[in-house]
Write a structure and sequence with these properties.
Elements: H1 9-37, H2 52-57, H3 66-80, H4 86-110, H5 112-115, H6 124-145, H7 200-205, H8 217-238, H9 244-264, H10 266-272, H11 283-301, H12 310-327, H13 331-337, H14 339-358, H15 369-375, H16 380-403
């Protein structure tokens, strides 16, 4: 199907990283010029007077640059991923759906002054409905994709499957293989021309552990909805300083490449006792494209930014992270990786809730919390660089938890 190097998903994931990076780099300048011509720029309005000067300095900087990110991820995925894999279809739907929602919001919001009348962007509840909608749709089909077929080169049984397991922190999905002990061997039917061959020893290791919780379809869909909507909103809130969201997303996406390769490779999944989800290794190509697209965007978004990603980029990036977390059953690990995003979201929830409860008092000087640090004396570059450092450490810590079982 592919030339020999492209038969290896690891190579294609690296190739997707490079390709998406150069796509964003190549089309970046002309896209920025087009956005300026269309007058799709930041308003320079800040909610807090102390931030007004900094916000005014960014006035008319073009936003909606997330179209570069979405296009690069889509193009690289279509060219390098196995398009016969259902998870790839679902990833492309999440990408296109949330990029369209974000672009609609950006366009309405940022061309309002030029139009003179009309909507000032989508309402929050409208965006949330679209996010939950794609989460429910994708959750339904992702659940079906996890049900093994009798022709697949993997154990076949009529009971629940590991792709639907509730993967709790520290949980051992499989019975550790001990050659000195008798282990019931599941039956399996090899698929002709299957690139990933499961040996008898691997099949023995695939005996699920006792006491696992298997999710029914409705629960799987609910988790997918919450992950996609939650992380896309958290990433959207984080996008408030030059390079902040793109840099943190790069670190998280690198972690996603590793996790998807583990989940989709029977040897690594059984060795690390995490759920083996056949076909999910192809999502490493999508994650690799995310890494390259974010790095390429940083070329134009580093301080002082020439373009902002806007909702177009932040919603689709966060949605893809939430989708892949649900597929590979690593929600807790990926939430740890996304600690900076969750801190940003949590700071807004706490600030708004405390403000309403106390009728005017605040916990932070300004929310999201990156503005609090800025107003506390950190420079914008310090806030961004330290968020990057924390994100890298969280990704390393989250990956370490995979081994500690």
């Amino acid at each position: 199907m592919y030339p020999r190097p492209l038969e290896q998903v690891q190579f294609r994931a690296l190739a997707a990283t490079c390709l998406s990076f150069f796509i964003v780099l190549w089309f970046g300048k002309r896209t920025i010029k087009w956005l300026k011509k269309m007058k799709i720029g930041d308003s320079g309005i800040a909610d807090v007077a102390a931030l007004a000067e900094a916000a005014n300095a960014k006035k008319n900087t073009p936003t909606m640059g997330g179209i570069l990110i979405a296009a690069a991820i889509a193009g690289s995925t279509i060219l390098l991923a196995d398009l016969s894999t259902s998870y790839i279809h679902q990833a492309l739907i999440v990408l296109a759906w949330l990029a369209a929602v974000g672009a609609s919001d950006d366009w309405l919001k940022l061309t309002a002054a030029r139009r003179g009348t009309g909507r000032q962007g989508l309402y929050s509840w409208e965006k949330f409905v679209f996010q939950l909608g794609v989460g429910a749709l994708i959750g339904y089909f992702a659940y079906s994709s996890g049900i093994p077929l009798k022709s697949d080169a993997m154990p076949v049984n009529n009971g629940p499957v590991v792709a639907h397991v509730l993967n709790l922190p520290g949980q051992k999905t499989y019975v550790p293989y001990d050659p000195d002990k008798e282990v019931k061997t599941p039956t399996f039917n090899p698929k002709p021309n299957q690139t990933q061959v499961i040996t008898l020893a691997d099949a023995r290791k695939l005996a699920p552990a006792q006491g696992l919780t298997y999710l029914p379809r409705w629960a799987y869909m609910l988790i997918a909805m919450l992950m996609i909507a939650g992380i896309s909103n958290a990433l959207n809130i984080t996008d408030g300083m030059d390079g902040l969201a793109a840099g943190v997303s790069t670190a998280v996406s690198i972690g996603m490449v590793i996790l998807t390769l583990i989940a989709g490779t029977v040897g690594m999944a059984t060795y690390l006792l995490v759920p083996f989800v056949p076909g999910s290794d192809e999502l490493a190509v999508v994650a690799g494209a995310m890494v390259g697209a974010c790095l390429g965007f940083l070329w134009w978004n580093c301080s002082p930014a020439q373009v902002f990603m806007g909702d177009t980029g932040s919603l689709c990036l966060g949605g893809l992270v939430g989708f892949m977390a649900s597929v590979i059953r690593q929600e807790f690990v990926i939430l740890l990786m996304c600690g900076v995003f969750l801190l940003e979201l949590g700071s807004v929830v706490m600030q708004v809730g405390f403000f309403k409860m106390t009728k005017g008092q605040r916990i932070f000087k300004c929310a999201p919390i990156h503005h609090h640090f800025h107003m506390s004396g950190w420079t914008e570059q310090q806030v961004v660089a330290r968020a990057w450092v924390v994100s890298v450490l969280l990704v390393v810590l989250a990956l370490a938890t995979i081994k500690v079982r």
